[in-house]
Specification:
496 residues; alpha+beta; Thrombin, subunit H; six-stranded antiparallel β-barrel; six-stranded antiparallel beta barrel; 11 helices; 23 strands; 18% helix
Length: 496
C-alpha cells in the first residue's frame, strides 16, 4: 500500500504522533514530554536513532513488510489513531487514514500473507477398513468360512497450530467427522491410516480400493494387502489421532519426526480472536476442496456468531447444535477441517459445513477459533477427551440489541437464568431471574454480553477451580457476587 504524503498532512500527522509519543516513552526513550504541541516528532525520532528523511520516517510507521509495528520498534498507527480520538477526533479509523495520511485504499494482492496461510493448511486423507466373515457354499455343496476385507476412504483438511521444524513434529487441528467412519460398520470408528499433504505435495494416497472395487484382500487372508493402503510413494506425512470431541466436531492430530516436514515450506497458523470478528470483514477459506488439493477462496463474514443444527455422527436421528461463523466464501466437500483466515492472516475459524439446500447459495460455516482453542487445551489436559464444566442451569436471552461502535455493529444480549437443576454446581447459588453480568476465571474477568460467552469459558475450567459470577438479582434488585467451585466429577460432562 503506497502513502502519498502532502506537506500539510505530514505536519498534521506529526502533531498527532508527537502527542502519542508522550504515552509511549519506551519507544522514544523520553522521561517527560512538556508541551506536546511544541515537539517535532520527527526530530525526536532522529535524536533517538532514526536515520532518513521525514517522509521515510512516516513511511516507517507501517513497520516491516507493511505491518504496523510488527518488529516491536515502530510506532503502531492504531495507537496514533487512539491518541487522536483522545484529543477529540470523532471519525473512524479509515476516515482518519484518509484525512491525515492520504492513504490509497485500493486493495492490493497480499500474496505474502496468503502464501503463509496456505502453507499452514494440509490435505487430510484417511482410510477405513471393514472385515466381514461369512459362509459360502462350494460346488460340492460344502460350506466354508471366508473373510473379506473392504476399504473406504475420506478426504478433508487440517490446520497446523504447533510446529517444530527441527524435530519434524507438529499438531494439526481438523474436524472430527473427517476422521470418523460416518456410520459405516468399520473395524475402528476413527481411522488408523491418516496421511497429510501440504500445498504442492505429491498425493499418492490410496484407501485400498483396487481394480475389483473396494476389495483389498486378494489372497483372502483377512488382512489388508501389503501396500494397498496409505501413501504409495508420495509426500504423505503420517499422522496419529490425539483426541477429539464428536459433538463439537473438533479433533487433534500429531506428527512426529517427519523428515519431509523438516525440509518443507510448512508454517503454523497464527491464531486470531473470533470474539472480535465483525460482519463484513474480509476472509479467506483455505482447504482441500473436493479432495483436489489445497486451494483458497475469498469472501466476507456474513454472520459473526450463530447456531446451526446438524445430524449427530453417532445417530443420524439426533441433532447436534454447533456455534459457528457464517461466510459467503466458497466452502466445498473436502474443506472440512480447513481454515478461515481474516485479512490480517489470523486464523479465526475451522471450516466444517455448508448449506446444501436447493436454491441456497454462499452459506458456509466455520467453528470459531477461540472456542476451538479452548477445546484443544481441554482435551490435552484430559487425555484426549473434553471435560466441560457445567453450571446445571438453563438461560435465555431476555434482551438483545445491536449498536454501532468504532465502525462495527456489535450485538449485546442480556442473559437470564430461567431454570436451576438440583444437585448441580450452581444449586443454591444462582436463582431463576438472575441476569449474568460477568465471570471471573483464573483472575480474568469477562463481561457476559453474549449468550455463548459463559458456555465457551466453562471449557477452560478444570476440577477444583473456583469461578466468580457477578449477577443482577431480580428478587433484590441489586448486584450480587457468587463463587462456585467445581470440586465434583458430577459437575463435568465428558465429550469424546
Amino acid at each position: 500500500m503506497q502513502n502519498a504524503y502532502t506537506e500539510e498532512k505530514m505536519k498534521a500527522m506529526t502533531k498527532i504522533i508527537a502527542a502519542t509519543l508522550c504515552g509511549l516513552l519506551a519507544i522514544t526513550g523520553l522521561g517527560a514530554c512538556g508541551q506536546t504541541e511544541a515537539i517535532n516528532a520527527y526530530e525526536l525520532a532522529v535524536k533517538n536513532g532514526f536515520t532518513g528523511t521525514e517522509q521515510e520516517w512516516l513511511a516507517s510507521l507501517k513497520g516491516q513488510n507493511g505491518t504496523d509495528g510488527d518488529d516491536g520498534k515502530d510506532l503502531d498507527i492504531q495507537s496514533v489513531y487512539e491518541a487522536a480520538k483522545t484529543a477529540g477526533y470523532t471519525g473512524t479509523f479509515l476516515e482518519f487514514l484518509k484525512e491525515y495520511l492520504s492513504v490509497d485504499l485500493t486493495e492490493d494482492n497480499d500474496t505474502a500473507t496468503i502464501a503463509k496461510n496456505v502453507s499452514s493448511v494440509m490435505s487430510v486423507c484417511c482410510a477405513f477398513t471393514t472385515t466381514t466373515t461369512y459362509r459360502q457354499q462350494t460346488w460340492l455343496g460344502n460350506f466354508v468360512t471366508k473373510t473379506v476385507v473392504e476399504a473406504s476412504g475420506s478426504a478433508g483438511s487440517g490446520v497446523v497450530i504447533e510446529l517444530d521444524k527441527e524435530t519434524g513434529d507438529a499438531l494439526v487441528v481438523t474436524n472430527y467427522h473427517v476422521l470418523y467412519s460416518s456410520g459405516v460398520d468399520t473395524d475402528n470408528d476413527i481411522s488408523d491410516c491418516i496421511y497429510l499433504y501440504p500445498y504442492g505435495a505429491r498425493n499418492y494416497f490410496t484407501s485400498g480400493a483396487g481394480p475389483d472395487g473396494a476389495l483389498s484382500d486378494a489372497n483372502e487372508d483377512g488382512k489388508i494387502d501389503k501396500n494397498d493402503q496409505g501413501d504409495m510413494g508420495g509426500d504423505g506425512i503420517k499422522a496419529t489421532f490425539v483426541g477429539g470431541a464428536m459433538d463439537y466436531d473438533v479433533a487433534l492430530l500429531k506428527i512426529e519426526g517427519s523428515e519431509y516436514l523438516k525440509n518443507s515450506a510448512v508454517t503454523k497458523a497464527t491464531l486470531g480472536n473470533s470474539d472480535e470478528v465483525t460482519v463484513g470483514e474480509k476472509v479467506f477459506a483455505i482447504g482441500n476442496a473436493n479432495g483436489l488439493g489445497i486451494s483458497a477462496t475469498t469472501g466476507i463474514v456474513s454472520v459473526e456468531s450463530e447456531t446451526i443444527g446438524m445430524s449427530s455422527l453417532a445417530n443420524a436421528a439426533q441433532t447436534v447444535s454447533y456455534r459457528v461463523l457464517r461466510t459467503d466464501a466458497a466452502i466445498n466437500h473436502g474443506n472440512s477441517g480447513g481454515a478461515l483466515f481474516n485479512a490480517k492472516g489470523e486464523l479465526i475459524g475451522i471450516t466444517n459445513a455448508k448449506n446444501v439446500e436447493d436454491e441456497t447459495d454462499n452459506m458456509g460455516y466455520a467453528l470459531p477459533i477461540t472456542q476451538v482453542k479452548y477445546l484443544i487445551d481441554n482435551m490435552q489436559d484430559n487425555g484426549g477427551v473434553v471435560q466441560r464444566a457445567m453450571l446445571g442451569v438453563m438461560t435465555t436471552k431476555t434482551a438483545s440489541q445491536a449498536s454501532y461502535q468504532d465502525g462495527k455493529l456489535v450485538i449485546t444480549e442480556e442473559v437470564t437464568v430461567v431454570e436451576v437443576s438440583s444437585g448441580v454446581a450452581a444449586d443454591g447459588k444462582l436463582k431463576v431471574g438472575d441476569v449474568l453480568q460477568s465471570v471471573t476465571i483464573d483472575g480474568k474477568t469477562t463481561a457476559i454480553t453474549r449468550s455463548h460467552i459463559l458456555n465457551d469459558l466453562l471449557l477452560t475450567v478444570r476440577k477444583g477451580d473456583t469461578i466468580t459470577l457477578n449477577v443482577f438479582r431480580e428478587q433484590s434488585g441489586e448486584n450480587e457476587t457468587l463463587q462456585i467451585t467445581f470440586d465434583n466429577d458430577a459437575y463435568f460432562t465428558k465429550y469424546a
